[in-house]
Amino acid sequence: MQQPNEKSFERRKFIHTAAMAGAAAIAAPVLGRVLTQVTGSSQIKVALIGCGGRGTGAAEQALKADPGVVIWVMADTFADRIESAHAELTKRPEGSRVMVPPERRFTGFDAGKLACASDVDVVILATAPYFRPMHLRAAVDAGKNIFCEKPMFTDAAGAQIVVQCIEDARAKKLQFMSGFCWRYSLPERETFMRIRGGDIGEVLAMHSDYLTSPLGTKPRKPEWSDMEFQLRNWQHHVWLSGDIIVEQAIHSIDKINWAFGNEPPTRCTATGGRGLRENIPERGDVYDHFAVVYEWPRNRRATLICRQQDNCFNENVDTILGSKGSAFINGWGPTHEIIGEHPWSYPPDGPNPNMYQTEHDEFYKALRSGKRIDDGNFVVNSCRMALMGRMAAYTGQDVTWDQVVNSKENLGPDKLEMGNAPPVVIRVPGNTKLI
Ligand SMILES: NC(=O)c1ccc[n+]([C@@H]2O[C@H](COP(=O)([O-])OP(=O)(O)OC[C@H]3O[C@@H](n4cnc5c(N)ncnc54)[C@H](O)[C@@H]3O)[C@@H](O)[C@H]2O)c1
Fold it and tell me: What pLDDT score was predicted for residue 277?
């Protein structure tokens, strides 16, 4: 097992130099293996960065997507997460293509950067989302093709880095696929293709629900530092996850962005709180519900409610009202339909493969053919909309798009090291300031 690099990572400095580094990386030749197309049946080496539930799932889907895929590198802050993901993946029918000896397993805070710099063609970015901008920067600089889980950033400082990375990935012709998996779900795709094609006329209003149960917690172990405790419970700490609206309900926000054609809302208002969160440290500082109203010119509006509470009714649905009809989507159910001038419904027996598998099938097909996938076209607006809703709920104020784009919000610590962790701060609407 490679030892973690002792150097801690200074994020503020990183943010200031990120744009420069990106520009320089485009001008300078990149060392090591860089392939934007992998022809024939040759091997495609993949680094898995973030060996938790989603990362392990994505690695398995990559193995299934293309017989040339090998999992070549694994990186995680914690060695035990690599061990369990490795054990899980090697049990699969494709397990013989998991080829990760100890010298290609990286741990600690530099694990992601070391993995990006290694001899691979593709990186899967699936850590706690706070680290995504840094990992994206390292991946683009090293010329890797990228599968990037959502959300792409948890604060405005991260957004700046990601915007530059997307431009640089474009200039280098790297694959950039996001984990906004509903974009790869066939019934959703067809419904939104019809909506954007004008079948319900102009989109005037939308309502989305993302109502579900709380995510699990990891009880504290005596040997854990405060930082390790927060990392193990990243979902419940705002700086690491972005809160439930950014980490999870962002799927619904992305559908709102899809329906409105990637046009940023001008303003939003919101409310939220921690109604049923147990008062235990594992539950960090995230809220357990949000309600948001997004506004566009000419009184067009979208509303979102999201909730993570036990023993409550759960659903994931979207209703879209247009000038000539309406659409209804039940994300966890069979219904995708349009009523109005162009009535339509997705056939109950129509193709509906696992959207997570479709993502990876399309990714490796594109890599083999040289056709570029660029989800950078929409991910920044979806993620900024999620920040916008969170900012409006935390502050209790209305928030404009310009305020989000120009925000100086920077949630993480100045230095990343296993020891102290950022303070846990429960935001109070009316008191919390917009940054
Ligand atoms: N698209 C989807 O439907 C979907 C579903 C679940 C999760 N996700 C996303 O996938 C990501 C991972 O979620 P998960 O459920 O797998 O969480 P998880 O906790 O199971 O896994 C995250 C892993 O990342 C590791 N990690 C954290 N910080 C790291 C760092 N700086 N460097 C290296 N490793 C680090 C953790 O130790 C952990 O093993 C999140 O962004 C989440 O929002 C997406």
Answer: 86
